[in-house]
Specification:
By secondary structure, the protein is of the alpha/beta class. 37% of the residues lie in helices and 22% in strands. The model has no long low-confidence stretch (mean pLDDT 96). Bound molecules: magnesium ion.
Amino acid sequence: MTKITAVRACTVRIPLDNPTTFATRKVLARDLTLVEIEADDGHKGIGFTYGGSSGGGIVTEAVRNLLAPVLIGEDPFRVEGLWAEMYQEALLQGRAGSVMRALSALDIALWDHNARAAGMPLYRMLGGFQKESVRGYASGGYYLDGKTPEDLAAEVQGFVDIGFDAVKIKVGLLGLREEEARLAAIRDIVGGDVLLMLDISNAWKDIETAMRFVSIYEPYDPYFFEEPFSPDDLDNHARLVQRTNVPVATGEIEAGRWRFKEILEKGAATILQPDAICCGGITEFRRIAATAASYGVSVAPHAYHEMHVHIVASTPNATFIEVFNDDTIVNFRRLIDTQPVVEKGRVLLPQKPGLGYDYRPDVIAKYAIDPWA
Ligand SMILES: [Mg+2]
């Protein structure tokens, strides 16, 4: 039997080149917890999670002090059993938030190890569905000081020029007329065929405010409204689903299959956006996606296409992968040595074993605020 011999974690803090704003937050830097497991078969596995724009060390502590002891000496191929044991160990501190993020990172590392040991790319280990590539949408359209609607439209056109037919932008920060001007400028330049997703980033507080904006946005044919309200305000999500023909998407910071079931039962979303780095890893993502499928709901995971490409490729009801084209907003990619290839708006399935990349020790040394231990 294979045994896990070591579990390590480190915290990196990567500053954003341009501090970035969306409706509810300004982001100056990103904390990430990286994990690595080693097994006595000579293979390792890597995982990671986002720990927030500060305080990411909490996640690293949870890996080292709470969950690593559960894994040491155990068989990395017994993924379901280890998931259940980590979950049980974390019952008081975890179930969502930093400790579930720690569990998620370790679960990803288990899957990465197992696929490396099998010598196959992770999407095949997971029971591949797609054969060559997955459809992406370009994610951008953030607010920056001095950025005009025309600048925004040029940015969206830039995504279309490199082959994307679906683009997501941030909305929800400005007043009605200014927000309308942004959408009008985009439709003026890209036309009506490009799918345009709108991320409200939890900005709306009540249904009456929401409906004022919805009526402004609807004529511009949005593909979905993302995170319109606080993630805990499921009732208003459900009201919005009833009041607009535009699909409502949410779930990027939710954890655990039970929470997603609640969203589905309340009719609070028509698209789920789980993120394997926080929902409970790849193992829990698959349970969530399977539950959604039985409700006739599709999933479109949040960010980190370097990892989600494998999951989308092996999930029949996954529709899109979110692609950030550079590292100005989501900067995880700086830490890895091989980037997935994006061609004509699609992410090609990586062919190296496991996730298909390793960490870059030089870059990690540069950004580490708490080194490997
Ligand atoms: Mg989002």
